[in-house]
Amino acid sequence: MGIKCPKCQTDNPDTQKFCGECATTLPSSEEIPASPTKTLETPTEELTTSSTFAGRYQIIEELGKGGMGNV
Questions:
Q1: Measured between alpha carbons, how far is residue 66 from residues 9, 14, 55, 61 in Å?
Q2: How much is the average pLDDT of 50-55?
Q3: How far apart are CA 65 and CA 32, in angstroms?
Q4: Where would I find the H helices in the chain?
């Protein structure tokens, strides 16, 4: 995993202390807070045949369903 420069947004290897593009001091990996994963929750009413999911996936047909969800 690399470190993104806070000034120019260039990706840099974890081993660098300064940005290879603009020479800005990079934060150490201990200083970078872990960001939680965000889950996209869509009500099941919206997921019908021919609807679009996440702005780019079109629902064609239901393949199966079970206790944990539909495919």
A1: 43, 43, 25, 15
A2: 79
A3: 40
A4: none
Is pLDDT above 70 for 44?
A: no
Residue 55 maps to a domain: no
Amino acid at position 68, single letter: M
**Six token digits for residue 37:** 């994963």
Q: What is the domain range of residue 8? A: 1-31
63 Rama sector, left if φ>0, alpha if ψ -120 to 50, beta otherwise: alpha
Which residue type occupies 5?
C
Q: What angle do CA 17, 23, 27 make, to 5 degrees?
A: 35
What the block records as the tokens of 65 is 């369903």
